[in-house]
């Protein structure tokens, strides 16, 4: 059986105390740290960039799962890997030459992921699927934390799971957007190998360690 991984996003953390956020993620048993980079162009919001990835690299030994929600991501692949990214995920919608960009990521020594927005069909990754380490299925339109998961996007996860299994490919499926304690079991059942949790990992006024422990229990079904 697959052991699903937890990749909490720091988007909803207190940016004045990031080192503490990383410590809580380690204590809570996170497998990765998910870093949401937004440029205000690919998505209608600006989050953070290279300095925060570098700071994360210094503050934690967890692998950094960097989700680039930026246009022309190929221009910054080298910089994000140099900053400490273990996984670099770029959006199919943001990149004209996906095959070249994936090769670029691999040449830097990082793992390569390709992300799809909820309205983008699976066929957008069909040709690149044999070459990627990870496919990130967005279950909300990217840009903001705290949105509700779009149920139809889970059907897409199920179809991708079947496709990857039928073809015997190594790519793992990451699911990002609106995942919380009440729906994480369904997300895993749909076929996710890695789940991202932003707002559910940093409940306002609550404990991140406890939130992650609760998520982990819910993931087990
Ligand atoms: C959405 C980001 C997600 C998001 C997750 O734009 O890519 O990683 O912040 O946050 P929640 O879990 O609150 O949807
Ligand atoms: Zn993300």
TrEMBL record:
CDD domains for the chain: RPE
Residues noted as binding substrate in the record, renumbered to the chain: 9, 67, 143-146, 176-178, 198-199
Taxonomic superkingdom: Bacteria
Gene Ontology MF: a single term: D-ribulose-phosphate 3-epimerase activity
InterPro entries per UniProt: Aldolase_TIM, Ribul_P_3_epim, Ribul_P_3_epim-like, RibuloseP-bd_barrel
Required co-factors: Zn(2+); Mn(2+); a divalent metal cation; Co(2+)
Involved pathway(s): Carbohydrate degradation
Enzyme Commission code: 5.1.3.1
Binding site for a divalent metal cation: 34, 36, 67, 176
Pfam families: Ribul_P_3_epim
Name of the protein described by the UniProt record: Ribulose-phosphate 3-epimerase
Organism annotation: Thermalbibacter longus
Source lineage: Bacteria, Pseudomonadati, Thermomicrobiota, Thermomicrobia, Thermomicrobiales
This protein's encoding gene: rpe
């Amino acid at each position: 059986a697959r052991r699903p991984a937890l990749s909490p996003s720091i988007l909803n953390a207190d940016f004045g105390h990031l080192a503490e956020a990383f410590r809580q993620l380690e204590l809570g048993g996170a497998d990765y740290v998910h870093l949401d980079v937004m440029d205000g162009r690919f998505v209608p919001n600006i989050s953070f960039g290279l300095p925060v990835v570098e700071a994360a690299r210094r503050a934690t030994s967890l692998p950094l799962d960097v989700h680039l929600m930026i246009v022309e991501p190929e221009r910054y692949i080298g910089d994000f890997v140099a900053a400490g990214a273990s996984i670099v995920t770029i959006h199919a919608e943001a990149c004209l030459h996906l095959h070249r960009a994936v090769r670029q990521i691999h040449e830097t020594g990082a793992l390569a992921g390709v992300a799809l927005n909820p309205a983008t069909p699976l066929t957008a990754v069909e040709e690149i699927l044999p070459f990627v380490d990870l496919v990130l299925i967005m279950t909300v339109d990217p840009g903001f934390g705290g949105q509700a998961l779009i149920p139809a996007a889970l059907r897409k996860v199920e179809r991708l799971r079947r496709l990857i299994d039928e073809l015997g490919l190594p790519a793992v499926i990451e699911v990002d957007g609106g995942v919380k304690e009440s729906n994480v079991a369904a997300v895993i059942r749909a076929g996710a190998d890695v789940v991202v949790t932003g707002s559910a990992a940093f409940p306002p006024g609550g404990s991140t360690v406890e939130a992650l422990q609760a998520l982990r229990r819910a993931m087990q079904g």
